[in-house]
Structures are given as C-alpha cells and as structure tokens.
Design a protein that fits this description.
Number of domains: 1
CATH topology: Arc Repressor Mutant, subunit A
Structural class: mainly alpha
Strand content: under 5%
CATH architecture: Orthogonal Bundle
CATH superfamily: Winged helix-like DNA-binding domain superfamily/Winged helix DNA-binding domain
Shape: globular
Oligomer: single chain
Distance between the termini: 68 Å
Length: about 120
C-alpha cells in the first residue's frame, strides 16, 4: 500500500533578504583592506580591529563573528559574505570550538572583551 503525502495550504514564501544585508558587503565592512572604509562607524571599526586580536580564528571566522556582533543573522551574513547558510553554520561551530565558548553570546562577549583591551 502506498500513501500519498499532501500539503495542507500553500507553501510558505521564501524569505526575502533584508536591505541591510544586501548593502553590507565584505569590502564595505572593512574586510580585505587595512584601511577603514569611508563612512565606517566607530563601532564597526572597533569590532573589526578587536576581532583581529582573536588570533586563533581564521579571517573568515572573524568576519562571521564581527558580522554577528553587529546584529546580522546567519542568512544575512551568508548573503553578505557570498557563502551558503550551511557554511556559516559550520564556521560558527569552528568559532565556538576554538574559543571554547558554550554559546554565540559568549563568543561575542569574548570579542567585546578583546575590544576593552585595545
């Protein structure tokens, strides 16, 4: 006997990428250059510099950590860095392992702690 699977109701629409993620390119956030981009906020610059102090993280892992600390969600970070959502999830696992952090909040707190040392 074969069973039929039916979906009740219409499929949920694919979520749209917010404008803030479309505008936030790696170069606009200061990745890939030593100079601050024009119009970079002091907070974003401090986060970028503070992340460099977390030496055990790769540059891509630092990018994810900085982007998350500015309030972007994983899907938005994926769009910004032109990576898949699942790659961002994998990078998060590496970040948490390297920082021995139990959560993303703790990892972000480590970044902010690094900022206080500047």
């Amino acid at each position: 006997m074969t069973s039929k699977i039916t979906i009740a109701g219409p499929l949920a629409p694919i979520p749209q990428v917010p404008e803030k993620a479309k505008a936030a390119t790696p170069s606009a956030c200061g990745f890939g250059s030593d100079e601050s981009p024009a119009g970079e906020s002091p907070l974003l610059r401090a986060l970028r510099i503070g992340a460099e102090g977390l030496g055990q993280l790769s540059s891509r892992e630092r990018q994810v950590l900085v982007a998350a600390s500015t309030g972007l969600e994983d899907k938005e970070i994926a769009v910004m860095l032109e990576l898949s959502y699942w790659t961002i999830r994998t990078l998060w696992q590496r970040i948490l392992t390297k920082l021995e952090a139990p959560s993303r909040r703790y990892a972000t707190a480590r970044l902010l702690e690094q900022l206080l040392k500047l």
